[in-house]
TrEMBL record:
Compartments in which it is found: Cytoplasm, Cytoskeleton
Protein known as: Kinesin motor domain-containing protein
Keywords: ATP-binding, Coiled coil, Cytoplasm, Cytoskeleton, Motor protein, Nucleotide-binding
Family membership: Belongs to the TRAFAC class myosin-kinesin ATPase superfamily. Kinesin family.
TM annotation in the entry: none
Signal sequence residues: none
Binding site for ATP: G85, Q86, T87, G88, S89, G90, K91, T92
Domain Kinesin motor: from-to ranges: 5-342
Organism annotation: Characodon lateralis
Portion held of the full protein: 1 to 351 of 1173
């Protein structure tokens, strides 16, 4: 199986109205002509697979970063897209936000998956099924966003006999069109809002995971005994605000919560560091097989296939251009640079 690197894109959002009113200065920009490099301040240059400035459209981001993953999904490969960055940097806008025309990655994935399935159905005798699950991870508790009956049910994760992480009892809904898929997502968002007190705080502290399981069974028209089954999964993950990764100065209940959020983001940082070191070690022919601490948090267990596993993975690191956030932007760019060293081995997912 051939290895591919986790691909990393950086997206710099525009200055917001209130930032313009308060004369915030721009501290990070895409450096032409390659448009895959960003400069922080006047002397810190970072290279990525893609870099998008404030005028980049949702279309551009989708076409360069996500479209190839959706195509490989329908060929039977697992794929993951996750957004990382501080609260207010554009993670939600990029994944799911914007107006109808400027819809984010989730809207575009929904349209694209069903368009590709319709095209396949024209060519072969194909049966396809798309199942959605939608979960939220908050304070190390995994909740089902699609189970209305049990009202914000907690889910458990365990390892199966092959060592794969499985979520026990998550509700999966079959969807037959982009519209149906998007209404399921809306339903999950509504449950998330009612289940949470202080929605803004809550959303900056939780990870949200939308999964599409695609099963395609095709039969040759000339020879009906020739059947093939492909099964694959796409995960779209909106991570908690990265500013939570290093903050432990709260006290009491807040400290506990902060520590629990840190567990996830710190564990993610440690996994990314271990995987990027492992790759460098391999190139230097020493210290191979370094331990990767996936088990330290639920988010790293859930992202195991996506980081060092069998999926095609894209990370979209979102940053604010404002000089007020220069320290956090530097953290995010350094984190994203490390993620570029991770190698995955995408193979067709098991049927
Ligand atoms: P996060 O999910 O990281 O907390 P949001 O996605 O909510 O951040 O973005 C914060 C604000 O910035 C929102 O008002 C959003 O509409 C705006 N915004 C973010 N990215 C862009 C962009 N690329 N173009 C225009 N507005 C954006």
């Amino acid at each position: 199986m051939s290895e591919v690197c986790v691909r990393v894109a950086v997206r710099i959002r525009p200055l917001l109205r209130r930032e313009l009113l308060h004369h915030h200065k721009v501290c990070v920009r895409v450096v032409p002509p390659s448009s895959a490099q960003v400069m922080l301040g006047s002397d810190r240059l970072f290279s990525f697979d893609h870099a998008f400035g404030p005028t980049a459209s949702q279309d551009e981001v989708y076409e360069s970063c996500v479209q190839p993953l959706v195509e490989s999904l329908l060929d039977g490969y697992n794929a993951t897209v996750f957004s990382y960055g501080q609260t207010g940097s554009g993670k939600t806008y990029t994944l799911g936000g914007g107006s109808q025309d400027e819809g984010g990655i989730i809207e575009r994935v929904a349209q694209h998956v069903f368009l590709l399935l319709a095209t396949q159905k024209n060519n072969e005798s194909v049966e396809a099924m798309v199942r959605v699950s939608y979960m939220e991870l908050y304070r190390e508790e995994l909740r089902d966003l699609l189970d209305m009956n049990t009202n914000y049910k907690e889910l458990h994760i365990r390892d199966d006999e092959k060592g794969n992480t499985v979520v026990v009892g998550a509700r999966e809904m079959v969807v037959t069109s982009a519209e149906e898929l998007l209404s399921v997502v809306e339903m999950g968002n509504a449950l998330r809002h009612t289940g949470a007190t202080g929605m803004n705080e809550h959303s900056s502290r939780s990870h949200v995971i939308l999964s599409l399981q695609v099963n395609i069974c095709s039969q040759s028209i000339n020879n009906p005994s020739l059947k093939s089954v492909r099964s694959s999964k796409l995960c779209l993950v909106d991570l908690a605000g990265s500013e939570r990764a290093g903050k432990t100065e709260n006290t009491g209940a807040q400290f506990k919560e902060s520590a629990l959020i840190n567990t996830g983001l710190l564990a993610l940082g440690n996994v990314i560091r271990a995987l990027s070191d492992r790759r460098r070690c391999r190139r230097g022919n020493s210290c191979s097989g370094a331990h990767v601490p996936y088990r330290d948090a639920k988010i790293t267990r859930l992202l195991r296939d996506s980081l060092g596993g069998n999926a095609h993975t894209v990370m979209v690191a979102c940053v604010s251009p404002s000089h007020h956030f220069v320290a956090e932007t530097l953290n995010v760019l350094q984190f994203a640079s490390k993620a570029r060293h991770i190698r995955n081995c995408p193979g067709p997912a098991p049927p």
